[in-house]
Prior knowledge:
about 230 residues, alpha/beta, Rossmann fold, ATP binding
Amino acid sequence: MSTFITMGESILKLKDVAVFQAENLVLNDISLEIKKGEFVYLIGKTGSGKSSFMKMLYGDLPLKQGDGTIVDFDLKTLRERDIPYLRRKLGVVFQDFKLLPDRNINNNLLFVLKATGWKDKSKMDAKIEEVLGKVDMKTKGFKFPHELSGGEQQRIAIARALLNDPELILADEPTGNLDPQTSVEVMKVLQDINKTGRTILMATHDYALILKYPSKTLKCDGNKVFEVIQRAV
């Protein structure tokens, strides 16, 4: 059973971890810790292994070597049937939004709640209103994804990630498809969510955002993931 994590406790801990895509070694010898409430960047060039690293954290790639725990789940012993339960405690935000084009925003969010076991319609409606409020999109519930701008769609994707009150949000290049101004707006939303005590790990290659909003930074480079110390530029 999950235990409640208090502020400052580890929410992600990896020791001597290797990440494989099929039989190919992508990353090796990773030991790191992220504590509850932190905002952490994951940087690195395209092809450096950032996405593979993220996939391992949310159960898309198995942990074959080393030890790892995330939101109280042991990644080494994670079984296929445990993955939906892991993902209820994680919010995942993708670069390409992954909204369902054939239904409006309210029904996109309703779909996720039903898929994760919610039954009470009034509670679902209240939850949808709450998360849309958090990303300043309360009036857009009846719009379809194609009627929204890229920035608005990403806000909805963040709202979707918040539906099950995740302990950790994994954001994989959430500003990758957005212009600089919109990227800043989405970043402010993530910062506000972090200020409420939620932990965020954000993969990005947008160094301008990192300079504007400095925080703990991990780097993928040379098959390794390591913390980099930021210096004033």
